[in-house]
Amino acid sequence: MLKRSTAAAPPRPVLLHVYGVNNHPALSASSVGSSLLTLSFAICRGLNEEKMRSLVDSVLEDARLLSDVDMVKNLFVLAFQSRWCRGGKAERLVFYQFIVLLYERFPNVVLDLVHLIPKYGYWKDLLSLLLQCSEPDSSLHAKVWTLFAEQLGRDLLELEEALKQDRVPTISLCAKYAPSEAGKHSKALQADKKISKLLFQGSQNAAEYRRMLSCLRKQLDITETHMCAQRWTEIDFAKVPSLCMDRQKYAFLGEKKNRACFMHPDDPVRQACREKFIVLLSNGANLKGQQVLPHELVAQVYLPRSRPAAAVDVRCFAAVGCSC
User: Fold this and answer.
1) How far apart are CA 313 and CA 300, in angstroms?
2) 202-231 pLDDT, tens per residue?
3) Which of 7, 52, 170, 224 is the most exposed, fewest CB within 10 Å of its CB?
4) Closest CA to 289 of 238, 250, 251, 235
5) Please, are residues 57 and 106 in contact by the beta-carbon 8 Å criterion?
6) Residue 245 and residue 287 in contact, taking contact as beta carbons nearer than 8 Å
7) 188 vs 191: CA distance, rounded Å
8) Would the pTM count as exceeding 0.85?
9) Of 41, 54, 34, nearest in space to 97 by CA
């Protein structure tokens, strides 16, 4: 005969309904169990850390009251959705603060998931995340150094194998965002030394680390590398990433944002780059634009600024499939 359990059942959610602007019923923010929804709506640019901490604590309290483990799991889903640059909110700072808060409460879970961050954002997120940590050195730091070292090692091995087999290597973008010797993250976190020590068996071989990054970045055909080396004509505009295209389109034209005229009349290389870019835009070239958010494109056309919307803006928007 089955015995009735004497354990107290978890309390039922207290659902308080309100009516929205369309006169449709919705859950009130004060409803027990609605804290996750409230946090989801609040996550956007400008949310301060104190408010986020309060909202996360409310979710955890609701999860405890309702004995709902899924609410805790959904906190992590929500965190990665806030960063997802291809289908989420594409927020960076809010995501870093969110992950730091979760790390304070669930360090082992965060350490198990941190390898997913470059997939939802980019490799630089790992370094920027560490800048938000109050602890100067932690298990999270060690995990990030290991992820960089392992991926750089795999990419270098793939490059060497591809050269032997006379084929195009398939490598990640890790080297593009790996900390350079004099970069911001190396100065603040000693990132280059930490990664180098893991790569070269305890030896902080700065020269070897630089050579490795140089080889991998050359293979990646990084736009900024061509720009810094004044090799403007070598830029393949079809491979320029979305954000780089949006930020550097005036540089490709040899113009300034507030001056619609060519700034390098005596430089044949810059002139050739300009002409190549204009031809591609005029011919309706397919440029990358997936990660430029709609409001960022619209703002360049409609918001007040020192220079009216130029032809390059309109052509770039058309090339990436935006009709604004």
Assistant:
1) 8
2) 776 889 999 999 999 989 888 888 898 899
3) 7
4) 238
5) no
6) yes
7) 8
8) no
9) 54
